[in-house]
Design brief:
Strand 11, helix 5 and strand 12 form a beta-alpha-beta unit. It is elongated and about 130 Å long. The longest helix has 30 residues. The chain has ten helices and 16 strands. The chain is α/β, with parallel strands linked by helices. It has three domains: 166 residues, no CATH class; 183 residues, 3-Layer(aba) Sandwich (Rossmann fold), CATH 3.40.50; 47 residues, no CATH class. It has a six-stranded mixed beta sheet, with helices on both faces. Strands 1-8-7-3 form a four-stranded mixed beta sheet. Strands 2, 4, 5 and 6 form a four-stranded antiparallel beta sheet that branches.
């Protein structure tokens, strides 16, 4: 029994039936034209030239139809029936899946291609070596699935006949968001809530019991003058680092349009950048997570949240964390959407940590390009991440600026971190 969701509705079923019909519109026209030439002009009007021409035309049409029918049957018969091993990779990475197809060498005039029907946001870029096709895919979004449905299309070289049939493969597929260069940049450690004290006069961490030799820059008031009077050696007291304050951090991933870079930054955070004591939440999951494995599952499940439900669980998440947390980090998309209203509604509630940071994550900011009026739009390249339009980022910065919180913009491609005032020239 298949674990994949079956296509529902009239149109998907109609497309499935049309795909199994071997004749395409060009093939139907070619058949009618061949019958007209062969029957009307060749036989009825005794035109021997058109009789030969129509016969060759129909013979070529039959050859294309027979090649497609025979090739489709052999492809279907040779498909693997046993489930393959689990596949885990990063979104945006070109990876081999282990699936391959081979065209029969004795059947000419064949063209093979296939795509993923489920999940639908995966693009197939096969490696072709002669008549052997090896599957490579690029996934545009994170997620977890229990199987793959492919639509395999075999056609002739002239585009007259084609057959499209589905192939379902029960296989665990797990796509995690790509980290890019975020884990290579030291500034990402700024997300951490560690126990570093900027200066000795700051928050005490213990009783001043330890002794050490004086060093340039030590406060004079910590010098033990009685010891200096007896031994003529400058000795200073230092705080004993026996008890350190704990700065607990909460983090939350907001789902929305273009949230894949935010998911990548959240992955970096839960895998070490948040420090030792933290709690994580994400849209699409209830309750907080405190382990890296549990947080990763929540990041992956957030991809299934509808676009109009972003940040809907943010208020409940803050209410469940309690008052012990001193800092909150929100990973948000770079494009405006309904999630902005959810964030602003949560900011108006109670129980917020004293320090609140917004991390806006992008895959670069698109530059304004002037293209000719009659030039067609460039085709999307699945190997390149989708950049953020300046007007979208400007609107997000404006709306989040009303929350009186710290805002940072991080570029997943380069790993650079920007303050809003550093982007004024880019967004102008």
């Amino acid at each position: 029994m298949s674990a994949l969701p079956a296509p529902t509705g009239f149109l998907p079923l109609l497309r499935r039936l049309v795909g199994l019909f071997p004749l395409r519109p060009a093939g139907i026209l070619a058949l009618l034209g061949g019958l007209l030439i062969f029957g009307l002009y060749g036989i009825l009007r005794q035109d021997r030239l058109l009789l030969v021409f129509g016969g060759v035309w129909l013979l070529l049409w039959l050859l294309c139809l027979g090649a497609v029918l025979a090739g489709s049957f052999l492809l279907w018969w040779g498909l693997p029936r046993d489930p393959s091993g689990a596949l885990e990779t990063e979104s945006g990475e070109r990876v081999r899946t282990g699936f391959s197809l081979h065209l029969p060498w004795f059947i000419p005039l064949l063209h093979l291609e296939w795509c993923w029907d489920y999940p639908a946001h995966v693009q197939v870029l096969p490696d072709v070596e002669g008549r052997h096709y090896t599957e490579r895919v690029i996934a545009g979004r994170r997620g977890s699935w229990s199987g793959i449905r492919r639509l395999i299309t075999l056609s002739d070289a002239f585009g007259l006949c084609a057959i499209t049939f589905p192939y379902e493969q029960l296989r665990d597929l797990r796509l995690v968001p790509a980290k890019g260069r975020l884990d290579r940049v030291h500034v990402v450690q700024g997300l951490s809530g560690g126990d570093a004290i900027p200066q000795v006069e700051g928050s005490p961490v213990g009783d001043p019991l330890d002794l050490r030799a004086y060093a340039p820059g030590d406060p004079i008031r910590y010098v033990l003058w009685k010891v200096y009077g007896r031994s003529r050696q400058l000795v200073v007291r230092t705080p004993e680092r026996a008890l350190a304050p704990t700065r607990r951090t909460v983090a939350y991933l907001v789902a929305g349009n273009g949230d894949e870079p935010a998911a990548g930054a959240a992955r970096v955070a839960v895998q070490g950048a948040l420090g030792q004591s933290w709690t994580f939440g994400a849209d699409g999951s209830e309750g907080p997570a405190s382990s890296s494995a549990d947080a990763m599952e929540r990041i992956i499940r957030s991809a299934d949240v509808p676009m109009d439900e972003g940040a809907r669980g943010l208020s409940a998440f803050f209410a469940s964390t309690g008052p012990d947390y001193r800092r909150a980090v929100l990973f948000v998309p770079p494009r405006p959407g309904p999630w902005l209203e959810g964030v602003k509604a949560a900011m108006g509630g109670s129980g917020l940590p004293p320090q609140l940071d917004f991390i806006i994550c992008t895959d670069g900011i698109a530059a304004a390009e002037k293209s000719p009026l009659l030039a067609p739009p460039p085709a999307p390249d699945p190997t390149r991440p989708l950049c953020t339009a300046p007007q979208d980022l400007r609107k997000v910065l404006t709306e989040l600026g009303k929350c009186s919180s710290t805002i940072l913009v991080v570029d997943r491609r380069t790993g650079e971190l920007y303050h809003p005032h550093q982007l004024q020239k880019v967004l102008a």
